[in-house]
Amino acid sequence: MPDQLHFVASEASEAQAMLLKLRARYGDAGPERASVIVALGGDGFMLQTLHAFLGRNVPIYGMNFGSVGFLMNEFAEEELTARLAAAAPARVHPLLMRAQSPHGLKEALAFNEVSLIRETRQAAKLRVTVDGKVRLNELSCDGILVSTPAGSTAYNLSAHGPILPIDSALLAMTPLSPFRPRRWRGALLPRQVQIRFDILEAEKRPVSATADNLEVRDVTRVDVAADRSREMTMLFDAGHSLDERVLAEQFLY
After folding, report:
1. 160 and 127 share a domain?
2. Which residue in the list 43, 167, 212, 227 is annotated as catalytic?
3. Which helix or strand (DSSP H or E) is residue 116 part of?
């Protein structure tokens, strides 16, 4: 049973108030001594927490104080230590984005997805290369996503991309409002692939690239690959694992 907890919370007033109550009830070992991080917020705050504790090898248990909470557990103030002791782990790996722009090269990690989106009224034009082979010479679209299994139920699902089991060795590439080629709806890719997006007519048709919550404007080229050297663990209540949530999401109507 974990005995070293550290609580963090989003800026929402309800989450901040509960943060104080939970610290008073269960204590707080601080970020350096903690064996479990308890995060109070929504999915966006869970992503922030994953990034904040990246490389610390400390599991993160989220409780929902947001609007969606797919990556969070239901909130309950009671029996937290028992829930943590019975929780099931889900291990996730981020994507590494390397975005080139006139301002230089920027690297960022994404646990959900890397997205490229047009900045103006004109459609983006992209060349899509996978493992050194051009797969689409010219994709005219609003944008494109590369999603991890953990992120496949987020923006990717809203864009009609496939839901991926959390332990699948796949990435989802999903276009946003593709115009040409009109019938292309995306691809499932092995997670070890190297993906490159070249932005065509970049000055006329500017594109931004975002890795989770970090955005790079006016990109000219974006490389995306899974980073297996980094791993984070999320904890989910017994019977409500991330695997079960991903499966259940596919039967909603």
Report:
1. yes
2. 43
3. strand 113-118
User: Does 9 lie in the same domain as 70?
Assistant: yes
For residues 110 and 157, give the distance between their C-alpha atoms in angstroms, rounded to a whole number: 16
What is the Cα–Cα distance from 29 to 7, expressed in whole angstroms? 9
Domain identity same for 41 and 53: yes
Q: Where are the alpha helices (DSSP H) in 155-200?
A: 155-158
Residue type, 2: P
Asked if 139 and 129 count as a contact pair (C-beta separation under 8 A), the reply is: no
> 215 and 104 share a domain?
yes
218 catalytically annotated: no
Tokens of 194: 């190297």
> What sign does the CA torsion over 107, 112, 114, 116 have?
negative
pTM, two decimals, is: 0.86
Tokens representing residue 215 in the block:
């955005």
Nearest to 3 by CA among 85, 88, 76: 85
Q: Give me the number of domains the chain comprises.
A: 2
Tens of pLDDT along 198-215?
Answer: 999 999 999 999 999 899
Average pLDDT of the segment spanning 187-204:
97
Using CA atoms, how far apart are residues 205 and 197, in angstroms rounded to an integer? 14
